[in-house]
Amino acid sequence: xxxxxxxxxxxxxxxxxxxxxxxxxxxxxxxxxxxxxxxxxxxxxxxxxxxxxxxxxxxxxxxxxxxxxxxxxxxxxxxxxxxxxxxxxxxxxxxxxxxxxxxxxxxxxxxxxxxxxxxxxxxxxxxxxxxxxxxxxxxxxxxxxxxxxxxxxxxxxxxxxxxxxxxxxxxxxxxxxxxxxxxxxxxxxxxxxxxxxxxxxxxxxxxxxxxxxxxxxxxxxxxxxxxxxxxxxxxxxxxxxxxxxxxxxxxxxxxxxxxxxxxxxxxxxxxxxxxxxxxxxxxxxxxxxxxxxxxxxxxxxxxxxxxxxxxxxxxxxxxxxxxxxxxxxxxxxxxxxxxxxxxxxxxxxxxxxxxxxxxxxxxxxxxxxxxxxxxxxxxxxxxxxxxxxxxxxxxxxxxxxxxxxxxx
Length: 408
Fold this sequence. Notes:
The structure is a single chain. This protein is an alpha/beta fold. The protein has 13 helices and 14 strands. The strands form three sheets. A five-stranded parallel beta sheet has the order 3-2-1-4-5, sandwiched between helices. It has a five-stranded antiparallel beta sheet with strand order 10-9-8-13-14, covered by helices on one side. Strands 6-7-12-11 form a four-stranded antiparallel beta sheet, with no helix packed on it. A hairpin with a 5-residue loop joins strand 11 (262-268) and strand 12 (274-280). Helix 3 packs across helix 10 (326-338) and helix 7 packs across helix 8 (282-298). 36% of the residues are buried.
């Protein structure tokens, strides 16, 4: 579509540096088009304060704030957690938020009869792929504008220069300008001193961590927590029935207080480069641990092992922006089948960055104490002789044949 035909643009708007300067840039470079800002609320809390005033002041005609928190938890976070999916230890906090937000963007773009959807993702990152693949799924004919692939701005310093020249209000400065992404599941930190893997993160520096404290600052007494699951989904915490979203918020509080969920990782981005980031995922780390702990007594060996293999694929599919694909749907169907008996209760002890197992119970437990006991049981130990003979038969046959060949 020719630029002159683009009269209305829906912008994925966070109020951060990138999207703040995109509003005046779009109006300058796309014939003073109407810009409709859309913020997807996925639990970023205070980041939404004053957003409408800021968006209008910088040139947007209106701002939509979509409350996506329940949808985000129920349709993206929990299915991913049930899969046990990670990407190189990373618990995918940005990855599963993007398709959720992009779906909302497409709904507003259709409602407003927009000519294009715009995002502020850089050409170096993964999010451009996640947004655009979701847009292609929900609005395949929609024009996509990615300013980082068009404008002459080359750095965050130059973005700040542009913002100052266009009177765009900013909450950051050049010295503390970490690139952050925050939602109810996690907070990521990238840039500045973290770009050098040799630099230790300033966990104890005031203001660096936002969702909790470092293990060194955590209490000297442990915190116990009990989490109940039904078919793999968290349904109660410390005996009180709550929604999955409420449980995550509570676990964020408990985990943050006890220094749980810090991850410093150099990951392999989809676009080919390595990137260093620090993640805070206090509640998510506890939830993954608890769910895996319960699965250890509820899943048979072969199902558990196959699920562990496929969790890697699930994590890669999600990380690569392919949530809305037949493969992801098929993987989720497999996961849901495995979760039919993952019902029970887990007790954990949280202490200075550590999660310690303190008990697990399930009516579907496959653990048989009588069979596993070192004491007297009905297990006939002589059965193992025949099993070992059959299991070791290929090894024995090969050894005999190898010896015969050596003696020829």
